[in-house]
Each structure stands twice: as C-alpha cells, then as structure tokens.
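User: I'll paste a sequence; please echo it back and then give the predicted structure.

Assistant: Echoing your sequence first, then the prediction.
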Amino acid sequence: MLRRIAQQLLPRFPGIFSIETVERYVTASYQSLAHGARVREHLFTLTERLAEERLTALAQTRGAIGKPVCEVLFVCTHNAGRSQIAAALTRHHARGQVNVRAAGTHPADEIEPAVLEALAGMGAEVGPEFPKPLTDEVVLAADVIVSMGCGDACPIHPGKRYLNWDFSETRGRSTAEVRELCLMIDLMVRDLLDELVPRAAER
C-alpha cells in the first residue's frame, strides 16, 4: 500500500524527485503517524497527505517549486488546539495571500472537539487538517515560524523569523473557554497579517 501511495504522489512532482525519494518520505510519514496512533482507520489517507506536504516543502526549499506567497508555520505540542486555531484563523483572514502550515512536536490523534466547535462558530473551520508531526522540511520552507508552547523542541534554523505566542493548552477546556482563547489568538493573527499582507487582516 505504501508503494502505491508513492506511485500516486510521484506524478505530482515531475522531474523533481525519484521514486526512491518519494517512497522514503511515504514510509517515514507512515511511521510517524502510526507510532502510538489509537485511530488507524484513515492512516493511509493521512500518510499520503503528510508525505505530499513534506515533499512540497522540500521542493520549495530546493527552489524546484515556487513560493508565490509568504509561508507561515504554527507549532505547538499536540497540533490539536492552539496551532490549529492560529492556522485556521490565518487562512480565514488571509484568503490565500499567505500559505499556512501547522505541526506539533508530539501530535495527538485528532483535533480537539471544543476547538472545532469554537472555530466553526467564528466561520473559520479547519477543513481537512489533522495533527501532524513537526519535520525539518516544513520548518525550512517557512518564512515565519510561530511557536505556541512547544518550547525548545522547535528546531532553530538561521535566517528564519521566529515568534513566540505564549498561550496555555486547550486540552481539558470547555468550548466557551476555547472560544475566548480563539478571540485572543485572532488578535495576534490579525496583527501578523497586518504586517505580512495588510489588506488580508481587514474584514
């Protein structure tokens, strides 16, 4: 099955990667998602999406794929709360003027229900996103890396811009509490977008 996924991904990167490279990233992505996973129903689908994101980021860092807009990466511990909130709100306000990724140093199995409910109430649903492990490819492809409580686990690379947004975890909070957190993160997101693409933060 992993080889089939690699064969499906290869045409998306024509002349950029060999089948061996794609297979290596597919296998590594599967292993990182499968490790300790309690929910395995969609594991192969998520593997394909994670491998494609990692390969895209790798191709960007090599200059094989262009970066038409600024890349922002949000990182927290589980990638199930804070970073998903920031990513969803950034996508919502940026309207395609910024590319957004999110990852976790120790990703959870799924995004927290209270987070999904709170974001839906703000019109900023996460869509097909899921908790993903933090990898060097997405860090190197990012122009701005926003740490949201991952501490020293987030790798530091020269030439990258790092921001630290200190918010407590959403785990165990009620939907009302998460909604308040969303409003605070929303202010930070708007300030960042005002700097990166001023018109994006306007309603």
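The chain has a mean pLDDT of 92. The radius of gyration is 17 Å.
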